[in-house]
Amino acid sequence: MASVPFHYIDLRTFCYATEDEKRVEEAIRAFLPEEFEVERSTTEGYHGDRIVVLSARVEKADDVRHVLARLSELDDIDRVMDELDDRVDDNCSFFLRLDKQAAFRGEVRRGEGLTLRAKVEAYPAKREAAVENARGALEDVRAAEHGSDEGEAGA
C-alpha cells in the first residue's frame, strides 16, 4: 500500500475508577506503534467519580499503516467492509468500536470500550468517495496481511 487515504486515526478510551489505568493504557497501545504517546485528561463522572480519558492521534503514514494492519486482524473484517456505507459519515469520518478487554489481551475484536475514528481522504470531500477510499485501504491491508501469512507458511 503505497499511500494511505487517511488524514489521521484517533483512538480513545475511558479508564473508570474501577479499572487499572496501566491495563487500560495497554489496551489502547495494542493498536499503536511502539513508544507512541498516549494523552491523558481527567474528568468527573456523574456521581463525582474520576474518569481518565486516554487518547492518541496517529497521523504519519507508517503509523496509520500500523493501526490498519492491526484492524486487518479482525475476524470479521469483511463484514466491517460491507458496513462501510453505515460506518462513514457525511464528514468523511470512519467509525469503529473495539473491545477494550480483548485489546488488553492483545486480541483485535469489535465490541465496547475503545473508539476508533479515522478521517478518510476524499477529493472532493464526498461520503461516497470516502467509503470507496476506506474500502480500498482495508482491502489493501487485508491482502498484505494474507500475503505475508502465506509467504511465512511457504518458508
Offer a quick outline of the entry.
This protein has 155 residues and is an alpha+beta fold.
CATH superfamily: Ribosomal protein L5
Mean pLDDT, all residues = 91
Low-confidence regions: 149-155
Count of helical regions? 6
Helix/strand class:
alpha+beta
**Biggest sheet, strands in spatial order?**
2-3-1-5-4
Fraction of residues in H or I helices: 40-55%
Q: How many separate domains make up the residues?
A: 1
Distance between the termini: 23 Å
For the biggest sheet, the summary is:
5 strands, antiparallel
* CATH class category label: Alpha Beta
Q: Identify the overall geometry.
A: globular
Keywords:
single chain, alpha+beta, 50s Ribosomal Protein L5, Chain: A, 5 strands, 41% helix
Reconstruct the topology from this structure:
Layout (H helix, E strand, L loop, with lengths): L5 E10 L5 H9 L9 E6 L5 E9 L2 H11 L5 H6 L1 H4 L5 E7 H5 L8 E8 L6 H28 L1
Antiparallel strand pairs: 1-3, 1-5, 2-3, 4-5
Helix pairs in contact: 2-6
